[in-house]
Specification:
By secondary structure, this protein is α+β, with helices and mostly antiparallel strands. It has one domain. 60% of the residues lie in helices and 13% in strands. It has a two-stranded antiparallel sheet with strand order 1-2. A hairpin with a 5-residue loop joins strand 1 and strand 2. Helix 1 packs antiparallel against helix 2. The longest helix has 28 residues. It is rod-shaped, with a radius of gyration of 19 Å.
Length: 75
C-alpha cells in the first residue's frame, strides 16, 4: 500500500492531467475513478491521524496534561 505522501502526489498528478483536458473521455473517467479512490484513502488516513493527535494543556498548578484534540465537527 502506498504511503500517504505517495497517494497525495499521485492524486496531484491526476488532477493536473484532468485539468489539461486533452485526454480521451475513457481515459479521463479512468483517472477520475482512480483519483476518487486515492482521495478516499487519503481522507481515511487523515481521519485516523486526527484521532491520534493530542493537545498538551497547562493545568492551574503549572503541570501539563495530554487531552484529545477535538475538531469543530467533534465539539
Amino acid at each position: 500500500m502506498p504511503s500517504f505522501e505517495q497517494s497525495l502526489k499521485k492524486l496531484e498528478t491526476i488532477v493536473e492531467q484532468l485539468e489539461k483536458g486533452d485526454l480521451a473521455l475513457e481515459d479521463s473517467l479512468k483517472l477520475f475513478e482512480e483519483g476518487v479512490n486515492l482521495s478516499a484513502a487519503c481522507k481515511q488516513e487523515l481521519d485516523a491521524a486526527e484521532g491520534k493527535v493530542q493537545m498538551l494543556v497547562k493545568q492551574r498548578d503549572g503541570s501539563l496534561k495530554a487531552e484529545p484534540f477535538l475538531t469543530e465537527k467533534q465539539l
